[in-house]
C-alpha cells in the first residue's frame, strides 16, 4: 500500500506566554515517478495516496491517455513511489517532462505552454453559470478537506456540479496534483468531466490550472486565491468561466466579462 499522508512530530510553539513543546501533524511529501508504456514521463513531488488517480489525471491533461485506452495502472514491484501505466491501442505522442516537477510547479516555459494549448479546441458550448453559485463552491470543498484540518499545509481540488454536488474532493501538497487526482478519479470511473461541472481549487488560478480545467473537460474554474494575467487571457481564449478570490459567497469573475 502507499505511504502515509501525515506524521506526528514534536515542535516548539512560540506564544506571548513563552515557548513550549507540543505535538503537531506534518503532511508527507515524497516523489512520484509516472511511467507510460515503459517511458518515464515525469517525476512530481506529492502527498502519498490516490497515486493512480494522479497518474491518470496528469496523463489525461497531457493528452496521452483516454479512459478506453487505459489497460492497467500499478505500482512498480516493491516501490510505492513509481506508478506504471500501460495503454492499449494506438500510442499517443507525449513529450516527457525533463527533471522533477515540484509540488508548486506545473507547465514551464513558452514551448510547454504552446504544446499544451495548441491541441485543444474551445470549451464546448454550455449554459452560463450562476456566478454566485460558483463563488460559494469553496465552502462545499472545505467540508472534505480532512488533511488540511490536521496539518494546515495542503491544497485541495474538487469537481462540483451545477446542482452543488461535490463529486470528488482530493488533497495534496501540490495544487496541480490535487486537480490531477480529481480528474483521475473521474477518468478511472469512466465518467470524464463535463461542462456541467466546475473544477474548484484552494490555491491561485495560474495558467496551468486553467489548462487542466480546459483539458479536463470542465467549463468553469473557481479559485480561492488570485488569478494571473495569462490565466485570465487563456480562459477568455478558450471560453472557460473563471472566478477568483471565491470566499464566503463573493468572488471576481475574470472570464467572461459580463
Task: Write a brief structural summary.
With 258 residues, the chain is an alpha/beta fold. The chain is 28% helix and 34% strand.
Characterise the protein shown here.
This protein is α/β, with parallel strands linked by helices and 258 residues long. The protein folds into two domains: 30-117, Ubiquitin-like (UB roll); 131-255, 3-Layer(aba) Sandwich (Cytidine Deaminase, domain 2), CATH 3.40.140. 28% of the residues lie in helices and 34% in strands. It has seven helices and 13 strands. The protein has helices at residues 51-61, 110-117, 131-142, 146-151, 175-188, 207-216, 229-238, and strands at residues 6-15, 18-27, 30-36, 39-46, 70-76, 79-87, 100-101, 155-161, 166-172, 197-201, 220-223, 241-247, 250-255. The strands form three sheets. The protein has a six-stranded mixed β-sheet, with helices on both faces. Strands 5-6-3-4-7 form a five-stranded mixed β-sheet, covered by helices on one side. Strands 1-2 form a two-stranded antiparallel ribbon. The relative contact order is 0.15.
Largest sheet: 6 strands, mixed
Biggest sheet strand line-up: 9-8-10-11-12-13
Shape label = globular
What is the CATH topology of the largest domain?
Cytidine Deaminase, domain 2
Quickly give the structural class. alpha/beta
CATH superfamily of the largest domain: Cytidine Deaminase, domain 2
Into how many domains do the coordinates divide? 2
Helical percentage: 25-40%
The CATH architecture of the largest domain is: 3-Layer(aba) Sandwich
Mean pLDDT figure? 88
Q: What fraction strand?
A: 25-35%
- Which regions contain 5 or more consecutive residues with pLDDT less than 50? 102-110
Distinct helical segment count? 7
Element pattern in H and E: EEEEHEEEHHHEEHEHEHEE
Radius of gyration: 18 Å
Amino acid at each position: 500500500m502507499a505511504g502515509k499522508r501525515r506524521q506526528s512530530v514534536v515542535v516548539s510553539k512560540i506564544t506571548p506566554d513563552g515557548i513550549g513543546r507540543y505535538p503537531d501533524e506534518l503532511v508527507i511529501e515524497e516523489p512520484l515517478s509516472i511511467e507510460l508504456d515503459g517511458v518515464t514521463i515525469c517525476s512530481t513531488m506529492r502527498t502519498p495516496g490516490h497515486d493512480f488517480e494522479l497518474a491518470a489525471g496528469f496523463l489525461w491533461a497531457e493528452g496521452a491517455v483516454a479512459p478506453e485506452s487505459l489497460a492497467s495502472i500499478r505500482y512498480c514491484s516493491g516501490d510505492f513511489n513509481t506508478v506504471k501505466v500501460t495503454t492499449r491501442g494506438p500510442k499517443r505522442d507525449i513529450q516527457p517532462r525533463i527533471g522533477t516537477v515540484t509540488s508548486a510547479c506545473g507547465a514551464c516555459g513558452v514551448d510547454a505552454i504552446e504544446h499544451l494549448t495548441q491541441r485543444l479546441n474551445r470549451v464546448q458550448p454550455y449554459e452560463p453559470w450562476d456566478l454566485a453559485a460558483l463563488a460559494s463552491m469553496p465552502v462545499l470543498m472545505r467540508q472534505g478537506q480532512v488533511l488540511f484540518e490536521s496539518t494546515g499545509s495542503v491544497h485541495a481540488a474538487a469537481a462540483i456540479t451545477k446542482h452543488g454536488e461535490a463529486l470528488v474532493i482530493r488533497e495534496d501538497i501540490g495544487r496541480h496534483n490535487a486537480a490531477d487526482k480529481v480528474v483521475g478519479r473521474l477518468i478511472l470511473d469512466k465518467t470524464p468531466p463535463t461542462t456541467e461541472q466546475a473544477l474548484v481549487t484552494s490555491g491561485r488560478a495560474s495558467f496551468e490550472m486553467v489548462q487542466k480545467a480546459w483539458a479536463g473537460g470542465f467549463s468553469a474554474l473557481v479559485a480561492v486565491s488570485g488569478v494571473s494575467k495569462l490565466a485570465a487571457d487563456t480562459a477568455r481564449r478558450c471560453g472557460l468561466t473563471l472566478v477568483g478570490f471565491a470566499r464566503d459567497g463573493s468572488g471576481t469573475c475574470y472570464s467572461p466579462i459580463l
